[in-house]
Design goal:
Rossmann fold, 2 domains, alpha/beta, 5-stranded antiparallel beta sheet, OB fold (Dihydrolipoamide Acetyltransferase, E2P)
Length: 238
């Protein structure tokens, strides 16, 4: 994964420290390179060029003429692809997040477990356009598969069946580990199947129908996350 770049707007020094400590812990634990800057003034924050940044973490309520939500509207207009996560002491502003397609909210005081879950969800939104290449051991050989060529992956007795447009490759593995390695164009519809949204034709009640006509069940345990992942995919591919 490329270096992740994060821009933080937070006026409280203690909350700045908590956010930076949580970022360091999360990215070190996941062995991902990242960089960041922190500003406490919205106007100075907007002076930065965020064109190559991946995430804006914004405090909403600030003692300035413009607040974090005002900043988010300017960011969304200038940098349409950057992800936005709000820092807030209350979710009363949550409805406003739809206006700027906010990815999520972090409640103060920051709790690391909640922070880590939402950062993991953010990482899944990073758009790789399916260009990532995966290597698998298959029948004694190492094969390389481009993500965008994978239609879906299912599992049977500890073996992953990787269905591409032209072939099916079988390799031993864990479907949860596989799901974490894939980019945001994929999501689990059940404990035994991962779908590539690029090949999805229709979602009909609890069924996923692919463009090749194959159909899979969305199980209750996975439905909420699957639909959320699909909504994020649609936003990133408008």
């Amino acid at each position: 994964m490329k270096k992740v770049k994060i821009a933080i707007l937070e006026d409280e020094l203690l909350e700045q420290e908590k956010t930076v400590n949580a970022l360091n812990r999360f990215f070190n634990e996941n062995n991902i390179e990242f960089e960041y800057f922190v500003e406490n003034d919205p106007n100075k924050y907007l002076e930065h060029d965020l064109s190559d940044y991946d995430l804006a973490i914004l405090d909403i309520i600030m003692p300035h003429e413009i607040n974090g939500f005002d900043v988010s509207k300017i960011i969304r207009e200038k940098y349409p692809k950057i992800a936005i996560i709000f820092l807030t002491k209350t979710l009363n502003y949550a409805i406003n997040g739809y206006e700027v397609r906010a990815l999520n909210y972090l409640l103060k005081p920051l709790i690391y477990e909640d922070f880590a879950l939402k950062m993991m969800a953010f990482l899944k939104t990073l758009n790789t356009n399916g260009s990532k290449i995966h290597s698998f051991k298959c029948q004694g050989s190492i094969i390389k598969v481009v993500e965008k060529d994978i239609v879906y992956i299912d599992i049977y007795k500890h073996y992953l069946n990787i269905h591409t447009k032209d072939n099916v490759y079988v390799t031993r593995g864990n479907i949860n580990t596989m799901a974490k390695a894939l980019s945001n164009i994929f999501s689990c519809c059940s404990s035994y199947c991962i779908i590539n949204f690029q090949y999805l034709e229709e979602i009909k009640k609890d069924d996923v129908i692919l463009k090749n006509g194959e159909m899979f069940k969305i199980t209750a345990k996975y439905k909420k996350d699957f639909m959320k992942d699909f909504s994020t995919y649609l936003l990133n591919n408008e």
